[in-house]
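Usage

Read records sequentially. Each one opens with the input sequence:
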Amino acid sequence: MSIYRHDSNLSFLRHCDNSDLMLLVDVLTTDPKDGKERIACLLTTSTQYKKKPKEPRLYWDDIAAEVQTFGANTFATLFRGGKGVLYREVLCDACDKAKVNYNRDASTETIEMNLLMKILEKSITRMSREDLDAISKELNTGHTNPTPEILMMAIQAGVKTSGFAAYQMALVVTNGVAKSLLGRGLSLAGNAMLTRTIGAFAGPVGWVLSSFWLLMDIAGPAYRVTIPSCIFIAYMRQKHLYGSRETDE
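and closes with the structure output:
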């Protein structure tokens, strides 16, 4: 029997692609340091996982339960009737640990975007002039010779006014996280526009994530699971909401 607590912020996972859900499954079940299965993982004991581990849509609720349970491991109150904590609590705790500036009264989607924006902002501040120019051109910001601050403001403005721009930003950060932790990126076969956008950010995002995960190790091992889990979930939510607007060139 699943220990999943009904969670309105996670129920959309049942509609997500298997390939995207597998990123979340892998970060929940495998330690990227040595590739071994996490000892405390409950997901791998579920009936549906054992039957068809490569079809996570069949056991999305068990995946959600694992996120909730791992989130509980970051709190003092671990035992709550054998179940974990709701996703929003996991997300806010992850943002606190990552020193994200956010409003606790904001929507879950907005808080997730604040987390993604934090990683992106750190990446942009370390970019070379060539990187800044390339990304400004790729995102059609209209700026020439942009500073990191100007580029970040342009991205934030775009995200606020366009759901598809928010999806693009989520995709860029998540691709970097996936490559950094799992050794593989997102599957974007056939979409040249999104592939180019990811390529422009790939190097700088990777540099930041290398040091970012080291800090998470220092903060506590559970955060190396909960923070990327929140990032993957944020990406899947944006894709669920706005991904149907993808266009190719």
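Summary fields computed downstream for this record:
- The chain has one domain: 11-245.
- Residues 11-245 form one domain.
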